[in-house]
Amino acid sequence: MTYAVINDYIEKSKYPIKAKYEMTPTSITIHNTWNDASAVAEVEYMQRNGNAVSFHVAIDDKHAIVAVPFSRNCWHAGDGSSLTSGNRTSIGIEICYSKSAGDKYRKAEANAIEYTAQLLKKYGWGIDRVRFHKEWSGKNCPHRILDEGRGDSFKKSIANRLVELNKKLVTQVSKPVATKTATQTKGTYRIKTGTFKNASALADAVNKIKTDFGFVIHEAADTTSFNSDYRIYTGTFTTKEAAENARAKITAKYGWLTYLIDETK
Ligand SMILES: [Zn+2]
């Protein structure tokens, strides 16, 4: 059960369609995607299409990709736009590969349990804050969890994990606070490239970047029938300056489009 959290936020120009309102979240809503696309593909598709359908996080066996900040609403609960609707109050989490995958789906679900427990801890919430899409609108979602009769056990797994996390919180409370230096912005930063035209162009790019700079490549390529997404995600940098410096080098050498992703929590 390991996954990387990547913040790959939607462009603000898409807010009117995808994330119209400011939001102070009060719950978390669990969904199944009902397809076999990866989290990367699910997010790319959501960001690209013009439908008023959106979600905050897509989770698969490898990634939790945060596509919309939790300070904005998403259209995922199917219950309208009143101030108390799920659409206006709840963080929408899509668990990927739910249609027919075996092991990949089970890993995605385990990651979603971990991620949701972490989120509950972060907000100081209890398990009562976790809801299923069905509880808002009646839709049979998350279909796989519900069809397999595991609704209660799924929530129980999150609750158990939350208990563990809260115990750890108590023992870690005396940990010293890291000191900040004047010129370095500490955090978690990653570089994402634009898309390459095919798998071999991507492989060439990965080779170049490794040979020329020795940068760690976290992830390259995610190809599904749903969408082809040939990008490079580097490993993380611990300061913004280091990441910007690396990004400048990549751009200067290859002229590629690159993005700085700020994953600082
Ligand atoms: Zn749903």
From TrEMBL:
<dbReference type="GO" id="GO:0030435">
    <property type="term" value="P:sporulation resulting in formation of a cellular spore"/>
</dbReference>
<comment type="similarity">
    <text>Belongs to the N-acetylmuramoyl-L-alanine amidase 2 family.</text>
</comment>
<dbReference type="GO" id="GO:0009254">
    <property type="term" value="P:peptidoglycan turnover"/>
</dbReference>
<feature type="domain" description="SPOR">
    <location>
        <begin position="183"/>
        <end position="263"/>
    </location>
</feature>
<dbReference type="GO" id="GO:0009253">
    <property type="term" value="P:peptidoglycan catabolic process"/>
</dbReference>
<dbReference type="InterPro" id="IPR002502">
    <property type="entry name" value="Amidase_domain"/>
</dbReference>
<dbReference type="GO" id="GO:0042834">
    <property type="term" value="F:peptidoglycan binding"/>
</dbReference>
<keyword id="KW-0378">Hydrolase</keyword>
<dbReference type="Pfam" id="PF05036">
    <property type="entry name" value="SPOR"/>
</dbReference>
<dbReference type="Pfam" id="PF01510">
    <property type="entry name" value="Amidase_2"/>
</dbReference>
<dbReference type="InterPro" id="IPR051206">
    <property type="entry name" value="NAMLAA_amidase_2"/>
</dbReference>
<keyword id="KW-0749">Sporulation</keyword>
<dbReference type="InterPro" id="IPR007730">
    <property type="entry name" value="SPOR-like_dom"/>
</dbReference>
<keyword id="KW-0178">Competence</keyword>
<dbReference type="GO" id="GO:0030420">
    <property type="term" value="P:establishment of competence for transformation"/>
</dbReference>
<dbReference type="InterPro" id="IPR036680">
    <property type="entry name" value="SPOR-like_sf"/>
</dbReference>
<dbReference type="InterPro" id="IPR036505">
    <property type="entry name" value="Amidase/PGRP_sf"/>
</dbReference>
<dbReference type="GO" id="GO:0008745">
    <property type="term" value="F:N-acetylmuramoyl-L-alanine amidase activity"/>
</dbReference>
<dbReference type="GO" id="GO:0071555">
    <property type="term" value="P:cell wall organization"/>
</dbReference>
<protein>
    <recommendedName>
        <fullName>N-acetylmuramoyl-L-alanine amidase</fullName>
        <ecNumber>3.5.1.28</ecNumber>
    </recommendedName>
</protein>
<keyword id="KW-0961">Cell wall biogenesis/degradation</keyword>
